[in-house]
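Late entry, evening session. Most of the bench is empty. Finally got around to the prediction I had been postponing all week. Sequence below, unchanged from the version circulated by S.P.
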Amino acid sequence: MPVYRWFARILILVTALASAGCAMVTVGDVSPREYIAQRRGDILSGRHLSGQTAETLAMAGLDDEPCERAPIPCIDALTAVSPMAEERRQSAIAELWLARATGRSLGMGPQADQARDAAYFEVARHAYAYLFFTERTASARAFEDRQTQVRDYYNYAVQQFAIALGHRAREKPGTALATDVGQTHVTVDLHTLSWANERPREVVAASALRFQGIRSTYRRDGLGAELVVDVRPEDGAVVDRAYQAMPTPSATAFLRFSGDSLDAVLHARDAVLEGHDPFQDATVSVGETTVPLAGNFTAGYGLWLARSGFATQSLSTLFGRSGGISAPRIYLMQPYDPSRRVILLLHGLASSPEAWVNVANDILGDERLRRHFQVWQVYYPTNMPLALNNRAIRDAFARTLAHFDPTGQAVASQHMIIIGHSMGGVLARLMVSSSGDTILDEVAQGSERRRAFLARRAKEVSPYLRFDALPNFDEAVFIAAPHRGTDFATNRLSRLISNLIRLPAAVVTRFGGMLADLAGDDGDAQGKKVALVPNSIDNLRSDDSFIRAAANLPIDPRVHYHSIIARRSPDGALEDTDDGLVPYWSSHLAGAESEKVIVSGHSVQETPQAVLEVRRILTENLDRK
């Protein structure tokens, strides 16, 4: 045999041996995108099974692509494989059930919906088993990407299952909130929720909501489905009382399976879908394991504002059109909590609770502030005179406290904080001030007719012109408040708007004569037009007798008070500046513990600087207690 042929055969033999041996292992580079995909990519984020599930399937001799399309045979095969670490098995099975629930193979229609709900239920079951009943504890896997993935499978599956259950309950009113999934009976436990006896008109996934006008979304990572529940009356009826809880509360759903072992959970015949208030519950426990409870503190508030119609309603109120409000309401941003102190917010002229969107949201989003405070918002008719609104808001506030804390001993009723913007700042100052006879004397000054009228009708007038500081407050923040009125209220545009303002007929009937008499005879004698009933803009004139008197009222010495003032331009002497509507000389209060001046227009409460200042004041308040 020629030598070259002998060498050729040797070469072929060596190549064959190399092909059959370990030399098949090669190495390559992994890009950052591939790195993230390998560790984080899964059926939820990329619509393909995760690398860990693919590896687990490969251990069982299965290919991941067919398993994505037809998960059930692969689930059965994984269930039968032995030996296999249960962490691997349960996490892979949870993801395969999720592939079935989110895949297109189920089609549409009632039977498909039922199969999809059952698949989500099984996702939750196997994820729950992985999290609480496999080889290691949740804390031992705290830094593992796989546990984060499985937690997300559980949360998403419970979210979809809870929404489907809520939808069925709405379609069939009067039916029990319970269902059967295969051989497992699922009950619903809402007993800790303030709205437990109300039938929700809608259950919404918090993660599905995106808001414009809210700077930040505040939430707490953890286990459970973050939801918003719409409990507005189906007929759109308005609750006829001074107080009302926000009708779109946040809730967290947690699906608990019976059993205290892996096998018991996998074959559980009973499960409970629990409703939790994320403001009250920060953790959830299964056996001896306690984990953070997920929560969303923005979505409920944002959805309420988005569906409220406040922007239109507040203008209807100002101009006395149908659809407006005629009395103050106090909205609770979360279910009443006797152990949390109250922050009371008052908006300004032609405004509504929407004015406080970022202030309230940042308070709810700050973990320490949220733990100690609850936010109440006053929504009042801004066309009314200051004296009437002052009295009406005080009455609404008193009725609210009497309902929730009849004895007045709860923490919530003590050491409150009041924050007001613009005209709301003037009203906030009235709440923490005592009038004595100052306002009565100011109104009567220079007019024997008014003095005689006040003496004759003292019983009717006194509740509106004589009042004491409310003892519940010991901190106040006034934002762009025209304490001494504003010349803007006398210009041509303001007078035009003032002439368009209409008060409710009942108010004109009840108070028209009294307020007209209080307006005085001097105005008519001097050829000036005097309004039959002065409205809110009339009251904000710097020469208005009520605003002049209110500016001189002493603030309760127990109250720490602060000013946040806007100036349109950083140029010029501070004393000569204004925010476009309110001059510095009107907003400034001697004796304030702090005064923050911000370059901004009149809606300064919306700025990040103002929100940070409010949070500083609240934090220092906590530090003092």
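Two things to note before I forget:
DSSP finds 25 helices and 18 strands in the chain.
Residues 13-20, 520-531 have pLDDT under 50 and may be disordered.
Will write this up properly tomorrow.
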